[in-house]
């Protein structure tokens, strides 16, 4: 990091923000301003921190909506209020405000059943993302790769040229990497893991033999698909793609924060 290198080079303390200068630290305070300007010119908006725990896609009235699950600390009250001007406060969040493209007119026409569905889906996804975030701290093998697959699946659902086959394929890849990552974590040999190839039923069966936590042996069927879905050779519906996303989120919860080896 440039700030650390400059601090060591000049042997001075550099405040995190130039707006909070340190007393009796003229050189360090001046360097903080210069570094801040350099970062702004070089990185711009890329410096901004993403306060998202995760994102998921909901299907409502055959429309797809992207919902954000925010990062939060301690206890947070997630509630539903049709009035989008009520976004919540420091310790509460209006779930409906987590979808930036959903208008007030659209929200006004949502039924109670649809509102309950949104709330349940949000809380379900939130629990999955909390677990997924924890996995990054336990050095789960292939974590970055499976996260890339998860993100790609989501993008394929909401992009202008949405492709549900590509989305389902990405969720399949994510599902597979999650299981194989935990098998590696349990010291199952690479040779044995490779022997499963893309046969998810074998990988799931092995996981259930190795860990106390069990995966639904039929869950993989919701993501299973041939590579040809990427080329429109096998039709994939919007509903199928969403089911694949939800299967991955279910898999995460079935495994849990730290599965126990038998």
Give the gist of this structure.
The chain is mostly helical and 262 residues long. Helices cover 49% and strands 10% of the residues.
Number of contiguous helices: 9
Largest sheet: 3 strands, mixed
> What is the CATH third-level topology name of the largest domain?
Four Helix Bundle (Hemerythrin (Met), subunit A)
Q: What integer is the average pLDDT? A: 93
> What is the global morphology?
globular
Strand numbers in spatial order across the main sheet:
3-5-4
Radius of gyration: 23 Å
Decide which structural class fits the backbone: mainly alpha
Organism: Parendozoicomonas haliclonae
Protein name: HEPN domain-containing protein
Top keywords for this entry?
5 strands; 262 residues; mainly alpha; two-stranded antiparallel sheet; Four Helix Bundle (Hemerythrin (Met), subunit A); three-stranded mixed β-sheet
Task: Tell me what the structure shows.
The protein is mostly helical. It is 49% helix and 10% strand. The chain folds into three domains: 2-47, no CATH class; 49-125, no CATH class; 139-262, Four Helix Bundle (Hemerythrin (Met), subunit A) (Up-down Bundle), CATH 1.20.120. It has nine helices and five strands; from the N terminus they run H-H-E-E-E-E-E-H-H-H-H-H-H-H. Strands 3-5-4 form a three-stranded mixed beta sheet, with no helix packed on it. It has a two-stranded antiparallel sheet with strand order 1-2. Helix 1 (2-10) packs antiparallel against helix 2 and helix 6 packs parallel to helix 9 (238-255). The longest helix is centred in the middle third of the chain and has 24 residues, at 112-135. The chain starts with a helix and ends in a 7-residue tail after the last helix. The relative contact order is 0.10.
